[in-house]
Amino acid sequence: MPFYAVGKGKSTGIFETWEACKRQVDGYPGAKFKKFYERHQAEDFLKTFENKIKEETPELKQETGMPFVDFWPDDVSADEEDDFLLASVAANFDDTQSRKRKGSASQEPEKLRKDSHVYKSVEQKMFGNYLLPVDAEGYVQVYTDGSCERNGLDNAIAGLGVYFDDNHPLNVAKPVTGRATNNVGEIQAACEAIRIAKRCKVPKLCLNTDSQFLINAVTSWMPSWKRNNWKLQKGGMVKNVEDFKVLDELIKDSTLEIRWNYVKGHAAIKGNEEADKLARHGAHLYATKQKQSSK
């Protein structure tokens, strides 16, 4: 069962339902909350608020009073929760075109929630030296995921996973480089999958991810960020800017057509479940790497 930790809100503590958590954070300026699947992780998160609240970086400040958290949840248990979190993200990230269309920055942010869809592979085709799963439209199917334990804390560990098929030689499980957060894992996993596709000269790639944040960043927000030199309209750099710049360079290649597809996390979707396992293994490799470097 999930545990919702509220470090700053109308009431603080650990709540067992999204509805109870939302009552504490909805409309509360600068609210801090996070969803966990282990109670001890929720307790660790709350400890960071016992003595002081960490100062927010400029890109996290907002006028809406809706909370922003530096992660995207592994899954969402209800459309209401999904909409609420997406509205939070939309309020924090620069969306110049949306504001122009609406005519006022004070209006409600666009809700960019995607519907989950699974494309079935119908055959295996050879690309380079590898057989890869292909759907009816000719897209190679790949699943990516990021994983982070103790996300947002100083001792966080994070990894990325790329899954093509069972025991496939191109599957990847590795630690992230740089900041250890869930979003970093999601971005770097996508980059890894695209690199593999390019090496194998894949012409069409369907990148399946449970990160709505990643899909919206690529398809909606990045053009605006780039026009503003990767800065947010209210000041400060886009978070994870270096990873986004790498991703941006990779997707510029016109020889590879990418379809960004959302799949719901923890919904018994095999590719997503396998990518999650690989990402979790990558996070454990991150911990091993840390231990070795500290010796």
Q: Briefly, what is this?
A:
It comes from Hermetia illucens. With 295 residues, the chain is of the alpha+beta class.
Count of separate structural domains: 2
What count of helical segments does DSSP give?
Answer: 8
* Highest-level CATH class of the largest domain: Alpha Beta
Shape: globular
Residue runs with pLDDT of under 50 for 5 or more positions: 51-111
SSE order = EEHEHHHEEEEEHEHHEH
The average pLDDT value, as a whole number, equals: 80
**CATH topology-level name of the largest domain:** Nucleotidyltransferase, domain 5
**CATH level-4 homologous superfamily of the largest domain:** Ribonuclease H-like superfamily/Ribonuclease H
Task: State the end-to-end distance.
Answer: 37 Å
Radius of gyration: 19 Å
The CATH architecture of the largest domain can be named as 2-Layer Sandwich
Helix content: 25-40%
**Percentage beta strand:** 15-25%
Largest sheet: 5 strands, mixed
User: Which sequence of strands runs across the widest sheet?
Assistant: 8-7-6-9-10
DSSP, total strands? 10
Backbone structural class = alpha+beta
